[in-house]
Design brief:
single chain, alpha/beta, 6-stranded parallel sheet, 14 strands, 13% strand
Length: 447
Amino acid sequence: MRITIFGTGYVGLVTGACLADVGHEVLCMDVDEARITRLEAGEIPIYEPGLERLVKANVEAERLQFTTDPTDAVAFGVLQFIAVGTPPDEDGSADLRHVLAVANTIGEQMYDYKVVVNKSTVPVGTADRVGEAIAGRLEARGVEVDFDVCSNPEFLKEGSAIDDFAHGPRIVVGTDSERVRELMRECYAPYIRLQEKLMFMDVRAAELTKYAANAMLATKISFMNEIANLAERLGADVEQVRRGIGSDPRIGYQFIYPGCGYGGSCFPKDLRALAHTAEQLDYSAELLNAVEAVNQRQKQAMFAKLRQAFDGKLEGKVIALWGLAFKPDTDDMRDAPSRDLMEALWAAGARVQAYDPEAMKECRRLYGERDDLVLVADRIQAVKGADALAVCTEWKEFRTVDFAWLKQQLALPVVVDGRNLYDPSLMQQAGLLYYAVGRGDSLTARE
């Protein structure tokens, strides 16, 4: 098939590369000329394991192309994927300006039948708005061209997006058109040969499915953080509790790891957008609001533990940070817990020495040059001369540590572990004051 994708951000680029890799001809369009120039030169503007190789291979095979010309983009494919950003507006709602701008462009440029595929994460009812925008442009042009709009939400996890696209458990398509079903089945045919995982449903159900999925996963995280906070106060080890409840197949082990809060481009934004939708319907989404409130509180926990360790006297202290990205295998720092911690430390007069395998460039972009932030080359440099260590991201290289060596590096041997990577008993044996999440760390630290 010939497929057009509007947007070369995370979702658009992964979708385009994966569809090209199974033999489709894909044209990715973006209004950002600098980004397209970089992509044509083989430079990938985002970090995602395996994506650079996939893009280069399919560009060389001439199955994947890039353009800034909307006329060429609309003319190219019968399937027109909208995969542009929907950033949160000030009131928490999803900003649909980019989505509707693409819809207007398609309406202005189309001369034959198109299926407009909403791949972006959008509120329920967006397909209707996209259809109205296209129809309005066609009417203004005085032409009649048949088209359909369907919903095809993405379920990609940063760090494993390519595998998720190829081997994810479901492909959701919202439509009431048999013609659309046939075309979307053809599009995804290479991915459903071994397993029939195409799920056709109503458009609005498909739009809600994306938000509901992220809301459920965020709920599991916040629930486990609530249990961890209780365990901490009760003297129980939440890791033992996690194993106990995760063994129940009705619950499972995924997304029940306590930590310093969730972040990234999806969960925070989508929770707020869904809660905003509820408000617009005059419905009080108490659980959604509670999930978000628990997460915001959890992001403050690491700073509270550091402040406790230093008796509230953080001014002039040097705190080492291991990890800046909101999760491993990405350079994304959107709503990352590390940002809450750094900004609180700076407000308290502390300095930060930070290292992350991939997010250093993004950190510089966000915060620029400042005297109270030093970005270093590796984890060893981060702890040299530091008073304490805070672990914000569970990168593999942080999982194994010589605790005796670590104690020698830190002026006050304090470790605040926001990801529960280490064994409290081993930390205590090494003479480290260890603050984790829900592992009785207050008692350990006092001893």
